[in-house]
């Protein structure tokens, strides 16, 4: 099934040490905490979320998933689509999560280091892989946004589509977590490179930012800090 047949605003539930956090530009030490992940997940679903974006930040930084228990509790607590990233390094890891009811797995570092992993997982679960392309200064970065790869996001997106990716998650690290607005030209370049859905993330501060990303062709927008800080409501974002 195609991800995001209609435009969606997707709340982020980023987890570190068992708590919901938001980081500024993905840097450890900048986090602000927002309580229990399960409570946050329930609240977003109550407010109309149809998809939840879960990230194990400990897994993203350290390569091993450290918030698996929280993810499992969220999956049991809500009845919406769940996509999960952070610390998923092997095809077996991903397929195990899909077997247990995660709807889509998000691969970043693993997909860059071993592109064929996308094809391997997609053969078992077609359309289930979202490849995360996080860009800093126009370059794809990995390992918790700490290492450059030399890859152009649009070119990389097209390559992963050929390998069977069901969607692309494009995060603009330069504006991530800053409530400073979005850079739609970067999103549009990725959208124009592929036929599969592109999910945009990073920099959303206002409802106008949400609308701008939608108009740039994004199939969905992941929002974290702006929702947690009350810059706008999920209900308002879903009604634009």
Indicate the topology.
Elements: E1 8-16, E2 19-22, E3 32-33, H1 37-46, E4 51-56, H2 57-62, H3 68-77, E5 81-85, H4 91-99, E6 104-107, H5 109-113, H6 116-124, E7 129-136, E8 139-142, E9 147-148, H7 153-162, E10 167-172, H8 184-193, E11 198-201, H9 207-215, E12 220-223, H10 225-228, H11 234-238
Parallel strand pairs: 1-4, 1-12, 4-5, 5-6, 6-7, 7-10, 10-11, 11-12
Antiparallel strand pairs: 1-2, 2-3, 7-8, 8-9
Low-confidence stretches: none
- The total domain count is 1
Mean pLDDT: 91
What do we call the CATH topology?
TIM Barrel
- Give the biggest sheet: 8 strands, parallel, barrel
How large is the share of residues in beta strands? 15-25%
CATH architecture annotation name: Alpha-Beta Barrel
State the shape: globular
Strand order of the largest sheet: 1-4-5-6-7-10-11-12
Number of continuous helical runs: 11
State the total count of DSSP E strands. Answer: 12
Q: Please give the alpha-carbon distance between the first and last residues.
A: 25 Å
- For the record, the CATH class is Alpha Beta
Round the Cα radius of gyration to an integer and report it: 16 Å
Report helical residue fraction: 25-40%
Global structural class: alpha/beta
The CATH superfamily is: Aldolase class I
SSE order, as H and E? EEEHEHHEHEHHEEEHEHEHEHH
């Amino acid at each position: 099934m195609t991800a995001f047949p209609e435009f969606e605003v997707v709340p982020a539930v980023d987890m570190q040490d068992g708590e919901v956090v938001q980081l500024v530009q993905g840097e450890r030490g900048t986090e602000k905490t927002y309580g229990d992940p399960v409570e946050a997940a329930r609240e977003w679903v109550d407010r109309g979320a149809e998809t939840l974006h879960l990230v194990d930040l400990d897994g993203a930084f350290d390569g091993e998933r450290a918030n698996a228990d929280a993810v499992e509790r969220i999956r049991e607590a809500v009845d919406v689509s769940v996509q999960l990233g952070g610390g998923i390094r092997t095809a077996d890891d991903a397929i195990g999560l899909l077997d247990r009811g995660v709807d889509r797995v998000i691969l970043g570092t693993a997909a860059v280091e071993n592109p064929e992993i996308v094809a391997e997982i997609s053969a078992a679960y077609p359309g289930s892989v979202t490849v995360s392309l996080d860009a800093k200064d126009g370059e794809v970065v990995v390992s918790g946004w700490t290492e450059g790869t030399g890859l152009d996001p649009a070119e990389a997106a097209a390559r992963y589509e050929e390998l069977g990716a069901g969607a692309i998650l494009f995060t603009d690290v330069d504006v991530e977590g800053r409530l400073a607005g979005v850079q739609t030209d970067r999103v549009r370049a990725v959208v124009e490179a592929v036929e599969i859905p592109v999910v945009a993330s990073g920099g959303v501060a206002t409802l106008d930012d949400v609308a701008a990303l939608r108009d740039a062709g994004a199939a969905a927008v992941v929002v974290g800090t702006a929702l947690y800080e009350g810059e706008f409501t999920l209900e308002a974002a879903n009604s634009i």
